[in-house]
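pinging the channel bc i need a second pair of eyes. not urgent but kinda urgent?? the chain im working w is below, pasted from the shared doc
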Amino acid sequence: MKIKQKKLLISFIIILAIFITTYITLSYFNIIPKKSYTAKDFGIETIKSKNDYNKNGIDDYTDILLGARNDAENKPKYISVYHNGGYPPENEGVCTDVIWRAFKNAGYSLKDMVDEHIKNNLSLYPRVAGKPDRNIDFRRVPNLKVYFDYNAVSYTLDPYKISEWQPGDIVIFGESYSHIAIVSDKRNRQGVPYIIHNAAQPIREEDALISYSKGAPITGHYRFENNKPK
């Protein structure tokens, strides 16, 4: 093979390698647009809440979904710090901030709800260690895990039981409860729903329920039905 042909071949291989690497990277971070589907595409009924807590004409589940999506579109910078008063500024947040902001959109103060449940059930909250801190307790995933265990309805942890996953559901990942997200109304081609979450990723509403669970298994799946605490 002539030198010129070898150089062309090497150049082609390098360009191909760069293209493949770039494609894999963009796909990994869900930056390349993917076709999304809806529950209707799989013959799944979308469940609406019987409650409209803030009386805005939109049911609670949809309000929670839209509140999470608003946070995703705002793309708050991932900053995990303690705030006196509890709430971070709108341009900052972590995964738990997606949740209380989603609930706020439905008219609920998740902070007050969690604080009240901790006050009345302190022994249930090992993460609090007997010393409640209203500035941070509602922003800790292990505390939200306990709260939803007692104040929401649990559903399947199997992401492939697609009919049980509904928009506005809450999902928790990790044996130590390290991450939390809201379930989207978008689905992938298998019918598995997208999640809306903040892990400092570029796209906050993404096809990541399966991929995220590979590193941190699903350990909680809830639907908040606004029932009285147990």
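so The mean pLDDT is 91. and DSSP finds six helices and eight strands in the chain. — does that match what u expected or am i reading it wrong
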